[in-house]
Design a protein that fits this description.
The chain has 329 residues and is an alpha/beta fold. It contains eleven helices and 13 strands. Helix 4 (92-100) links the parallel strand 4 and strand 5 (106-110).
């Protein structure tokens, strides 16, 4: 079977920083100590008003293409994972294709909330395995801060904006995508909900705006926390089992950056040191699907990941969705 290689990665986060102290200054009833203790977040990035998800994806993609030594003309397919596309139609992937000038590639979006990057890796790998495509650009890009009610403390402190990208190819050298594993539980999908804009809440009306239906809502956060930890652990064990390794053999865990306390619980359950968890949530908050994509690109760029090391990327998100990707560098 054809091996699937990662030829290059790239990331982009907006320059504007919103710190916990800034949230305090906005009049939100919170504090840096309260946020850090409960989430591990100290600051997050905010996209400028004129910047959309595809714009951030474009900047991340250019870095990934440069790292791979490729041009947009080399791409056969562009898959964008996002819950915050530029428009409902066209897809964010179509806008990105136009930004890049990748005229040979066909493109589409997938929506799997915070698990989107791993879902997109899985989709891309299927096209490569089938022989339909040879070179695929996978992007996760989110402008989460435009979905928030900035008066709702429990939710608005969590989220940030950014994008990450990876180039996948059939065969060759470079890190190998060993396996991907994805799951959903649609019956629990209302636990993280953004109803506005979908067919359940259109057209937009004064009533839908007044009812706050266009804001992201996190329902029953404590229960979601427990479910997320359980699904993270299931995904890790599925990935390690499929590759005949143990959690202790993993050199780096690069999870969806949801909550630092989740990582502590996971490390304890797996009996692995916290130092093996690559953490960006303190600087960027929760960037939904983009979080592990950005983290992967940064871990490559800063030299944390070395040749031969084994990486596990577990994810969990609304929908509910979860899974993991296993990569050998």
């Amino acid at each position: 079977m054809t091996s699937i290689r990662i030829l290059g990665t790239g990331s982009y986060v907006p320059p504007r920083v919103l710190s916990n102290q800034d949230l305090e200054a906005m009049g939100l009833e919170t504090s840096d100590e309260w946020i850090v203790k409960r989430t591990g977040i100290r600051e997050r990035r905010i996209a400028d008003p004129g910047m959309c998800s595809s714009d951030m994806g474009h900047l991340a993609s250019k870095k990934a293409l440069a790292a791979a030594g490729l041009s947009p003309d080399d791409l056969d397919l562009i898959v964008v994972a996002t819950a915050t596309p530029d428009t409902c139609c066209p897809a964010a992937a179509n806008w990105l294709q136009a930004h890049l000038g990748a005229s040979r590639a066909f493109s589409f979006d997938i929506t799997a909330a915070c698990s989107g990057f791993v879902f997109a890796l899985d989709v891309a790998s299927q096209y490569i395995k089938a022989g339909t495509c040879r070179t695929v650009l996978v992007v996760a890009a989110e402008t989460m801060t435009r979905t928030l009610d900035w008066t709702e403390r429990s939710s608005c402190i969590l989220w940030g904006d950014g994008a990450g990208a990876a180039i996948l190819s059939a065969g060759g050298s470079g890190p190998e995508l060993l396996s991907t594993h994805i799951h959903t539980d649609g019956a629990s999908g209302s636990d993280l909900l953004l109803p506005g804009g979908g067919s359940k809440t259109t057209p937009i009306s004064h009533e839908s705006v007044d009812r706050g239906l266009h804001f992201l809502r996190l329902i029953n956060a404590d229960q979601t926390f427990r479910v997320a930890v359980r699904r993270f652990l299931e995904a890790i064990r599925e990935g390690t089992g499929a590759n005949n390794v143990e959690p202790g053999d993993i050199d780096w865990f690069i999870p969806h950056q949801a909550n630092l306390r989740m990582f502590v619980n996971m490390a304890k359950s797996l009996d692995v040191p916290m130092e093996r968890f690559y953490v960006t949530i303190d600087r960027y908050g929760n960037m939904s699907s983009a979080s592990c994509a950005v983290s992967l690109a940064e871990a490559v760029e800063d030299g944390s990941i070395r040749p031969g090391q084994l990486v596990c990327m577990p994810v969990f998100g609304g929908g509910l969705t979860w899974g993991c990707a296993m990569i050998r560098f």
